[in-house]
Amino acid sequence: MSERVAIVTGSASGLGLATASRLHDSGYNVVIADYSAERTEEAVSSFGSDARVAGFHTDVANTRSVEALLAFTRERFGRLDVLVNNAGFAEPMPTHLIEDASWSRMLDVHLGGTMRCSRAAYPLLIESDAPSIINLASIAAYIGIPGRAAYSAAKAGIEGLTRALAVEWAQFGIRVNAVAPGFISTPLMADLVKDGLRSEAAMAGSVPLARLGLPEEVASVVEFLAGPASSYVTGQTIVIDGGLTIDGRERSANPATAAVIRSGDTA
Ligand SMILES: NC(=O)c1ccc[n+]([C@@H]2O[C@H](COP(=O)([O-])OP(=O)(O)OC[C@H]3O[C@@H](n4cnc5c(N)ncnc54)[C@H](O)[C@@H]3O)[C@@H](O)[C@H]2O)c1
Q1: What is the number of the ligand 1 atom nearest to the C-alpha of 15?
Q2: Distance 256 CA to ligand 1 centre (A)
Q3: Over the stretch 127-159, which tens digit does the pLDDT of each residue have?
Q4: What pTM did the predictor assign?
Q5: Helix/strand/coil percent split, the chain, to 5
Q6: Quick one: how far is CA 206 from the chain centroid?
Q7: Catalytic residue list
Q8: I need a surface site. Which of 34, 80, 127, 181 has the fewest CB within 10 A?
Q9: Predicted confidence band at 188 (pLDDT cuts at 50, 70, 90)?
Q10: 40 lines ligand 1 (CB under 6 A)
């Protein structure tokens, strides 16, 4: 495992940084590829002067930039085994006010970026003995959240792309999976709370496990999908949401029954 190389896009922050860190701890050489040059440098510095970590300023919405990232990775580490398509952003907006440019940027970074990075990584991935791509989807692909039309559409598209690529590239041994996080405590989420677009208490209250998730709890699932423990898993999306999307409590509960179940009193 010590030779394996991973690129994590959008890894100067949040889930990407936690994933880069987790993969690094497991012995991977890691390329931190992020839109923010300043935060990329900071993220790389947070690993000390470890030669197994490299940073590259990248815009996943730009084909040339993505091709430069892959050329850099080949030159620096000579191979690629794992690609984590994580770069993204949130920009809640009532649908009747969305401008074409905002819609296009959302689709182009999340869905286009996932395709663009996968396409550019393909020549290196087919040379790996155990290549794996992991895409960041979201529960926003399953549940309707007001103001998230473009985001939800992009994330639903990522799931379709994941399944299509999994089948198309199975012949090369490339596994392609996705994770769909729920409410995870990251700078992206903190911004939504700060702007009054989300309430942390309301989010935690709506989750059966009664709390937000931690970036490390997503990173550990990505690591599972990256490595040999998931060698027969492809085309799947693993939901990491504390039970939010399978919760039937509000729809089925009789308050009296709920009280009995909570107290454990079956008499
Ligand atoms: N936080 C959550 O609760 C949550 C839930 C579901 C899905 N997600 C998804 O997880 C991913 C990471 O989210 P996060 O919460 O860690 O966000 P974050 O804002 O903390 O980190 C996202 C990173 O992506 C980078 N980025 C943005 N646009 C880019 C571009 N064009 N090219 C390269 N890098 C770019 C940003 O600079 C930033 O460092 C996103 O795809 C997001 O949609 C997050």
Answers
A1: 16
A2: 42
A3: 999 999 999 999 999 999 999 999 999 999 999
A4: 0.95
A5: 50, 15, 35
A6: 22
A7: 151
A8: 127
A9: confident
A10: no
